[in-house]
Every structure is written in structure tokens, then in C-alpha cells.
Amino acid sequence: MAKEKSYVVVHDFTDLQDKNKIYRTGDTYPSPANKKISEKRLNELASKDNKQGIQVIRAVESSTEDKK
After folding, report:
1. Reduced to 3 states, what is the DSSP secondary structure of residue 38?
2. Which residues form the domain of 37?
3. How far apart are CA 26 and CA 55, in angstroms?
């Protein structure tokens, strides 16, 4: 069973680095899920080191299993 990290929005925000895409609380980040986001950007949004000054996403670990 492999674990992969995904992110969920904990505070509504507009992603200024993604054509002003609006994310609402409970959304997955990024959307679409296979979009490439830098580790630096993920860390910025998961901390207070962003323009809003609050954490807007948090990491969640999801388990994936190979279906046979």
C-alpha cells in the first residue's frame, strides 16, 4: 500500500499564481489533482508565509492500493 500526499483547502483563497483560480474550503488542491505545483508553493500555502497570512491548505495522506 503506497501513501501519497494530497492537500485540502482549509480557508477560501484565490490562487494568484494560477490565473486567479478560486478555491473553497473542502476543495482539493491543486485542481486538477495532477497539476504540477512546486514544493515551495505548497509550503507557502500550508503555512502563514503567503499574502493572506494564514494557512490555506493542509496536507492529508491518502492510501492507494493496486487493484488486481
Report:
1. coil
2. 2-62
3. 14
